[in-house]
User: What shape does this take?
Amino acid sequence: MKELLIKLLEFMGVACWIEIKTDQPKCIYYFGPFLDEQDALTVQKGYVEDLEAEKAQGIQAKIKRCKPQSLTIFDEKEGKKAYETITPLSGQAF
Assistant: This one.
């Protein structure tokens, strides 16, 4: 039942997602979707720890209701095409 509700919220664009921005590399990562803020908060620390283990710097995390177009967005200054989508981190929940 919970999964069905999450899919409905995601379809409407109001599911909760964890948005994590890093300064180095300059990226935005999205993890989710989650039913509510509490569900997202429960796992947020693990995603931040994964990025720390990968030596990311300047990590800022927040939970927001949205419908991301890409799960990972690179800054074009990092030598990648602007807004290139890549494979999610190993801890990605889907």
Q: What stands out?
A: The beta strands are 16-22, 27-34, 60-65, 72-74. Confidence is low (pLDDT under 50) at residues 80-90.
